[in-house]
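Ticket #4471: structure export looks truncated?
Reporter: QA, pipeline team
Priority: medium

Steps to reproduce: submit the single chain below to the structure queue and open the exported record.
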Amino acid sequence: MRPVLILTAGYGEGHNAAARGLHTACQQLGIESEIADPFTAMGASYDRSRRDYLWLINTAPHVWAFFFGLIDRFPLVEFSLPLLSRVEQQLAELLAEKQPRAVVSVYPAYSYLIAKLFPSGRPFTLHTVVTDSITINRVWHRAPSDTYIVANAATGDVMREQGVPAARIHELGFPVPPRFAADRPERPDPRDGARVLFMINAAKDTAPDVVARLLLMRRIHLTVTVGRDEELRARIEKAAAGRPIEIHGWTPHMPELLMTHHILIGKAGGAAVQETIAAQTPMLITQVVPGQEEGNAQLLFDHACGAHCPTPDALAGQIDWLFANGAREWRRWHDNIRALSRPDAALQIARFVSGR
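Actual output as written to the record:
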């Protein structure tokens, strides 16, 4: 059986997270699939461009917002295709070798390269998984794709307004890990205290201040993830000053952590927001990158299951409010986010793209 080929790129974690979630779902269903990143053909310049991208969105987000707007309004990707000749060659060789029945792109550049490689028609179906919500850059759909798979109805509405044919838009959800759809661990009663998960993936300089402030609160269980950053771990331990705290480095158990906590604190990245929705865990957002992340945050705000809390005091105040009066407001937020949740989306998408 010809495989499903999933194309990703390392510009932001949302793309890779979507690719991994879909690949895992394919494996679970017995569908042959493979993840590939043809941008690796760029070698050292790829690593440098990814570092520059992360530096830009974290240190000069409004500059990135300007470029985001330019990419939306003008065909800059089309003009830059000659610079991606090595990526194009790698992609052509990959497609010739794998002979996929379906290609799933979770990064918008691939549909442009595929259109260039196959000007007269493709020997496979092409599906584009849009990893953003609501603030959809037109770069996602200026090149042709058989379908566009979106995470929610609001995003589908935006793309229809932008001129994408309704028949090509499929609101199947975001491909979070299928573990979110398996037996869910029991979440402790919120009346016994707030279990707060602080996922540090940006603003590392201010993270110790957040930890110190939250640990002043009564009846809070604080869990912090620091990834592979041992220097950050040391700073968090120092900020805790001997008070009880649970710290994780890189962990494969993020779904379980999300599902057993009451609140996620973090940045409004596409994967983080979609996984917290799958976990049915409301979110307090500390940072929103202008442009692509605004829609992710708006999705939570519009459905009253998240809030923007840019300071440690704002976080503490919001948590106090949510868990007052027997956690009444938290329960309301939980009901709202549960209505958005599609934890089996990866399985549904895998069936759809494979023709199951």
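Status: closed, not a bug. The export was complete when the record was re-opened. Leaving a note from the reviewer for reference: Residues 4-175+344-354 form a domain with the Rossmann fold fold (CATH 3.40.50.2000).
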